[in-house]
Amino acid sequence: MNRPDRHVLLSPSLLSADFTRLAEEVKVMEDGGADMLHVDVMDGHFVPNISIGPLVVESLKRVTDLPLDCHLMISDPDSYLAPFAKAGASIITVHVEAALHLYRTVQTIRELGCKPGVTLNPATPLSVLEEILPHVDLVLLMSVEPGFGGQSFIPTLYRRASALRQMLNDAGNPDCLIEADGGIKLDNVAQAFESGVDVIVSGSGVFGTDNPAETLREMRRACEGVSSI
Questions:
Q1: Which domains does the chain have, with CATH numbers?
Q2: 91-105, 146-160, 168-182, range with the lowest pLDDT
Q3: β-bridge pairing 177-181 and 9-12
Q4: Which of 94, 118, 168, 182 suits 47 as a labelling partner, its CA being 20 to 30 A distant?
Q5: Residue 13 neighbours by CB under 8 Å, 6+ apart
Q6: Which amino acids are annotated catalytic?
Q7: What's the predicted TM-score (pTM) here?
Q8: Residue 62 pLDDT > 70, yes or no?
Q9: 3-state secondary structure of 126
Q10: Calpha distance 149→73 (Å, rounded)
Q11: What is the tens place of the pLDDT at every residue in 6-57?
């Protein structure tokens, strides 16, 4: 299904920001035209790292009007849906590998007033999504193993995004967004967008550059005019 009016959405990952000046980093992202902010939540159990919790999301909500795109890389997501929703999350995304009762989890996220999303690790087959696709607003495809920033991009993302777009069309949910996270930088953002990705998450690919705001603008320009599916 060709979608010629599709535009890229940029969601810089705050995991790569300077946490000693987080409000300033958020302002830089706003100046660069970010569409939302990606918040990586890690518990040290589902992934081998620990990051932030609802209190930081609550603080972010006080300094920005951008939607907060909260990616829960945690073993027991159901216990934290309400705290993140209350803190100000706009989107809450859970891993299919961690959510034991995925339909109920997705419904709970929506009942809490947030948009529900589901996430797949790079080696998890797309087929596990078949029953849940009609019920979500976003599917996040990991293009690195979750848990750490700065990893190398796994190029199977392109094939997976294209196949997922067809699955969403077949499921009667063509408006569902496809998001990609991991190793996306200026040199591969256009190809990710062309493959069917709608929302680009980039951490070190933005914050690790000399001018993060300009890098965001360059990413958007790189996707302009790209043929899309």
A1: 9-223 (3.20.20.70)
A2: 146-160
A3: unpaired
A4: 168
A5: 38, 40, 149, 181, 201, 202, 203, 206, 207
A6: 40, 181
A7: 0.94
A8: yes
A9: helix
A10: 13
A11: 899 999 999 999 999 999 999 999 999 999 999 999 988 888 888 889 999 9
